[in-house]
Amino acid sequence: MSPPDPGGELRAALDAGHFVVTAEIEPPGDADPDAVARKAELLRGWVDAANITDNQGARVRMSSLAASLLAMRAGVEPVMQLTCRDRNRLALQSDLLAAGALGIPNVLLLTGDHPKAGDHPDAKPVFDLDGVQLGWAARALRDEGTLMSGREIETRPGWMIGTVENPFAPPTELRARRLAKKVAAGAEFVQTQFVFDFDLFERWMGDLRDLGVTEKCAVLAGVGPIRSLRALEFMRTVPGVVIPDEVERRLRAVPSDRVTEEGIDLCVETIKRLTEVPGVAGVHVMAIGFERGVPDIVQRAGVGPGVRGESGKGGRT
Amino acid sequence: MGYLLHALMAANAVYRRLAALVERRPRLYRWFTAGERASKEALFGCRMCGQCELPATGYTCPMTCPKQLRNGPCGGVSADGRCEVHPGLRCVWLIAYERAEASGRGADLDLLHRPVDHRERGRSSWVNYWQGRDDGLWTAFTDTDPYPPLNGAGAQEKGLTPR
After folding, report:
1. Could you give the 3-state DSSP secondary structure of residue A194?
2. Rounded to an integer, what distance in angstroms lies between the CA atom of residue A21 and that of residue A13?
3. Which residue of B has its CA nearest to A173?
4. Taking the model in full, what pTM does it have?
5. Max CA-CA distance within chain B?
6. Phi, psi of B82, rounded to the nearest 5 degrees
7. Who is most buried in A33, A174, B31, B48, counting CB within 10 A?
8. Element (H, E) at A23
């Protein structure tokens, strides 16, 4: 028996050569059955899919599997995140099978943040697999129909496999090769850390093109608005986020009541600039707690399903 | 230095017989493993995973990474190279990268490393290596074989000495 055909909109948009948009929905920290739908409502029609995060920042949230189902019910295609932090290889594979059976069209497989930085620093970190190995196991499950044990499965899942990469973290010269490795393991699309440093990003994209990675893997560049100087200060402390001085100068140069607008303008400009970079297939908008701002940002940038129908703008072809 | 040591210890028939002998005698195996632990702990901070990756990681032990990543650095390395979990430490994969590049072994970092077999924890990786059980620990991907299999390169299939 075949699993429900995931028929993913994200895959279809990528195949059609559209410049795609993904966003994020963080599941609630309680058992509220409507919280996901409320956020999905804000994004519906403006994004091709939304990541459903998995205990993001090592803080307890509703499971990404359940929240992905809630997002589907609310009309937003989920990208189910799954991390190696909280599950060993048995649990990871069983969640991947479940996602297949439920028709979740996309999974994003990561190593995950260490519990030390989260709300349960006393927890046992699992890390039975790393993110690369998890992607590898997922591909074996889907394309070869085998579990890590070697046992063959009858009904294979159909999701598309995603990964993450940070072009800005040292050793930066290795980061394109590291993504090539993830693609060899199984990744079909990648979402990046926030792009603020364009020079470094373009260098990384050049490396990817030279390695032939962009032909096998759709690159979705991470973007997001910095909405206050406090947010700027916070972002500077997030490991792996690099904010060049010119960005900081620009945000500090405007009157304090204009910082939010300036941050959003910067985000819109960044997206527009990214549409010009060869090999960039879309953007991943991380607007934590600001889902309501996403439609405005992508509309002004002229990307995503919300504008595709109207003017054809934002398509790469 | 690691590469030099490795050349001295590279698998050959003598070592294979030695490994088989050591494995047949539980007491000798314990002494042998204790010796391996002491020397590798002192040199590399070895955690005795029993499936040594040092030859492919610039002689930097990936099990000393707080996430025990066997396939390269995570995305949380700070701009000055500090570990996101223990900011007092330098990222072990950054060290691995620098050492491998400096030794002309940079291509090692492109290898795909298979998951750890946790049954081997605390056992001798030298014996495992000489017995050929480590052959499938990592694999390369190439233009002709862009998607190597996750399963399949296990020692059992090669008919090597089972334990």
Report:
1. strand
2. 10
3. B97
4. 0.94
5. 50
6. -85, 150
7. A174
8. strand A20-25
**Beta carbons of A116 and B118 less than 8 Å apart:** no
Q: Give the A window 190-219 contacts with B, CB below 8 Å.
A: 193, 216
CA–CA gap between residue A235 and residue A107 (Å, rounded): 26
Among B67, B97, B98, the residue with its CB nearest the CB of A130 is B67
B113/A184 Cβ within 8 A: no
Amino acid A2: pLDDT: 61
What phi and psi, each to the nearest 5 degrees, are found at residue A38?
Answer: -60, -45
CA distances from A173 to A208, A267, B78, B95 (A): 11, 26, 15, 14
Between A and B, how many CB-CB pairs are < 8 A? 116
Q: Do B71 and A181 touch (CB under 8 A)?
A: yes
Burial class (CB in 10 A: 0-12, 13-18, 19+), A34: exposed
A9 touching chain B per CB within 8 A: no
- Distance, CA of B96 to CA of B81 (rounded, Å): 12
Helices A259-274 and A245-253, axial angle in degrees (round to 10): 140
> pLDDT tens digits for A180-190?
999 999 999 99
Q: What is the pLDDT of residues A226-235, one digit of tens each?
A: 999 999 999 9
Kindly report the number of other CB atoms within 10 A of residue A276's CB atom: 7
Chain A residue numbers touching B76 (CB-CB < 8 A): 113, 166, 169, 239-240
Measured between alpha carbons, how far is residue A53 from residues A73, A76, A88, A188, A218 in Å?
17, 14, 18, 19, 20
The model's confidence at residue A317, banded by pLDDT at 50, 70 and 90, is very low
Helices (H), A102-193: 131-139, 175-185
Residue A188 near residue A161 (C-beta atoms within 8 A)? yes
Give ipTM to 2 decimals: 0.91
Closest CA to A63 of A36, A100, A103: A36
Q: How many CA atoms lie within 13 A of B40 on its CB side?
A: 28
